[in-house]
Automatic annotation (TrEMBL):
Keywords: Fatty acid biosynthesis, Fatty acid metabolism, Lipid biosynthesis, Lipid metabolism, Membrane, Oxidoreductase, Transmembrane, Transmembrane helix. The chain crosses the membrane at residues 55-74, 86-104, 223-243, 249-272. This is Fatty acid desaturase 2. It comes from the Eukaryota. Its main location: membrane. Residues 86-345 form the Fatty acid desaturase domain. It comes from Hibiscus trionum (Flower of an hour).
Length: 383
């Protein structure tokens, strides 16, 4: 990445933060990507091996501390307190391991260091430890960044048009059905996406992140898909050995439930970044990369913003400059907000409230009535 510099474009009008549901503009932005880059301090594009590893070490110290306390002291607690201690461990460990997941995600974007081999090595180890096929996800996620907001080519959380809804959709458009849908999405959504491409881009045959010859990957990527599979298999084998040594309940309590928390947060974060009543999607007649990259929203997860290394509240900047390390993303966001103006979208609604609202309001996409904007699609909920 080149360095930034002095801003050479007039700031766009600022969008009131309280009006988070107002639609973002769909006209061609009055700024370019290079102008946004010039608005960002040059140091934000610099990647530091030592600083990046400091976050890995910090997360592993926390994870090790939680593990030590849980495995050495919880069994000494009175029985009623154990029912409080273990859920606290699951929640806290799951949040910290979500931060580990985010660092591996940085590696997939070559945002960890200046050395691709180091990024891939660290990312492979971290993601494999969380049962994520690193290279498989890296390549599909790269295509997501290349095609964000495109109804035809985006890779994940691609909304359906009303005509594409299944017949049972209307029976889930109520509070009990919504609760069931969210529960399934948070518990099974991530493994179903990896294995069967659920909520992903439609392909002409089964798209599976574990299949080197699936339609997601090119010929030159297939060998690394085998490597990804080997990493996941190795961790499964290690877990199998742990079950033999410690028992299945121990493995579930120490590793399995925190992993479920990681997967739930991963789905929540990704879903809420790209699903919002104010965000458009585009078909091939309207889509371009910059408008697609801007069709995302920053969210506020409170203290978890820091735990998740700010992947939640700097996502707009991340989509514009994905090789920028996370520890500079906040400064970059502050720098580009005056330039983006109304094209910048932030919603401070608590994530647990937002996921319910978006599940209710964002059932499908359709264009507005009339001839203008036929290639621009907005979320709707009327069935």
């Amino acid at each position: 990445m080149g360095a930034g510099g002095r801003m050479s474009v007039q700031p766009s009008p600022k969008k009131p933060e309280h009006d988070s549901l107002k639609r973002v503009p769909i006209t061609k932005p009055p700024f370019t990507l290079s102008q946004l880059k010039k608005a960002i301090p040059p140091h934000c594009f610099q990647r530091s091996v030592l600083r990046s590893f400091s976050y890995v070490i910090y997360d592993f110290i926390l994870a090790s501390l939680f593990y030590y306390v849980a495995t050495n002291y919880f069994h000494h607690l009175p029985q009623p307190l154990r029912y409080v201690a273990w859920p606290l461990y699951w929640a806290m460990q799951g949040c910290v391991l979500t931060g580990v997941w985010v660092i591996a995600h940085e590696c997939g974007h070559h945002a960890f260091s200046d050395y691709q081999w180091l990024d891939d090595t660290v990312g492979f180890i971290l993601h494999s430890s969380l049962l994520v096929p690193y290279f498989s996800w890296k390549y599909s996620h790269r295509r997501h960044h290349s095609n964000t907001g495109s109804l035809e080519r985006d890779e994940v959380f691609v909304p359906k048009k009303k005509s594409g809804l299944r017949w049972w959709a209307k029976y889930f458009n109520n509070p009990p059905g919504r609760l069931l849908s969210i529960t399934v999405q948070l518990t099974l959504g991530w493994p179903l996406y990896l294995a069967f491409n659920v909520a992903g881009r439609p392909y002409d045959r089964l798209a599976c992140h574990y299949n080197p010859y699936g339609p997601i990957f090119s010929d030159r990527e297939r060998l690394q898909i085998y490597v990804s599979d080997a990493g996941v298999i190795a961790v499964f084998y290690a877990l199998f050995r742990l079950v033999l040594a410690k028992g299945l309940p121990w493995v579930i309590c120490v590793y399995g439930v925190p992993l479920l928390v990681v997967n739930a947060f991963l789905v929540t974060i990704t879903y809420l970044q790209h699903t919002h009543p104010s965000l458009p999607h585009y078909d091939s007649s309207e889509w371009d990369w910059l408008r697609g990259a801007l069709a995302t929203v920053d969210r506020d997860y409170g203290i978890l913003n820091k735990v998740f290394h700010n992947i939640t509240d700097t996502h707009v900047a991340h989509h514009l400059f994905s090789t920028m390390p996370h520890y500079h993303a906040m400064a970059a966001t502050v720098a580009i907000k005056p330039v983006l103006g109304e094209y910048y979208q932030f919603d401070g609604t608590p994530f647990y409230t937002a996921i319910w609202r978006e599940a209710k309001e964002c059932l499908y996409v359709d264009p507005d009535d009339g001839d203008n904007g036929k290639g621009v699609f907005w979320f709707r909920n009327t069935l």
